[in-house]
Design goal:
Layout lengths: L17 H14 L4 E3 L3 H14 L3 E6 L6 H13 L2 E4 L2 H10 L7 E3 L14 H11 L22
Helix pairs in contact: 1-2, 2-3
Length: 158
């Protein structure tokens, strides 16, 4: 592969410079003959997604990683999801919400799970648990709970 580095300054959506910056990015996509533009969040879905469509060349791939979002996100992302050639999602539940809420055709939705090795969730042996408890200074009968994630309402850790 070839690494291409091109900087387009980020501008607020409400800025008068937004359309101009999108045009600069679209021209870069077209002149560089970019094949695929992959967008991964609300800002890039809208900014780079529209620029990709303005360029009329690259395939547009967007991503969705949640089942719920504020109305403003649903509106802007929903339009771009429907304009996308493919939408990558991280679970079957997100795929269902994408098809049911944003009305994206099933054949354009691709599930790429967060974890592919289910063995990572196998129980660990008692000796490893005892060693970890000693390292952490936790007595043998104390409950231990852990969560590695962003604490956000849509994650529903509760």
């Amino acid at each position: 592969g070839v690494a291409i580095h091109h900087h387009v300054p980020a501008v607020p959506f409400a800025s008068a410079a937004t359309l101009s910056a999108m045009h600069v990015l679209a021209r870069f996509f077209a002149e560089s003959r970019i094949d695929v533009v992959h967008c991964h969040d609300k800002y890039t879905n809208v900014f780079a997604g529209i620029a990709a469509r303005m360029a009329r060349g690259p395939a547009l791939v967007t991503s969705k990683r949640w089942t719920s979002a504020p109305a403003s996100h649903r509106l802007s992302n929903g339009v771009l999801y429907r304009m996308s050639d493919r939408v990558l999602v991280n679970s079957r539940a997100v795929a269902r919400s994408l098809r049911g809420v944003e009305w994206v055709a099933r054949q354009r939705v691709v599930v790429v799970p967060n974890f592919v090795d289910d063995a990572l969730f196998d129980p660990i042996v008692d000796a490893e648990v005892a060693l970890a408890r000693r390292r952490w200074g936790v007595c043998d009968d104390a409950p231990v709970i852990g969560c590695v994630a962003r604490f956000r309402p849509e994650k529903n850790q509760a």
